[in-house]
Amino acid sequence: MRIRPEVFRRLCRARRALTEIPEDPPPVEGVAREARISPFHFIRQFDAVFGQTPHQLRIEARLARARRLLALGELRSPTCACAAGQPRVGDSAPAAGVNASHARTGCGG
Description:
Layout: H1 5-19, H2 28-34, H3 39-50, H4 54-72, H5 77-83, H6 89-96, H7 100-105
């Protein structure tokens, strides 16, 4: 897929916005609007350029942050899950592929 340089720059800015984990993350539709692309086309172009959908990128960023927080050893699983943007630990375990006891000990992954 060939895209114009200005569209690529907007997609890169959108990618940075999606990997940040604020208290109230913007919806993909809002990020697409800021990139001046329709939501459906934004998702398709994002996937074509970066190899994953915006939702997949956001989940990956949250999991990476939770792994970093757990690796520090100062926070327990529920605290890390909340700090990584996941409201309930039970929701994060299947996506992470690691059960809670392995996550606490740094095993699995």
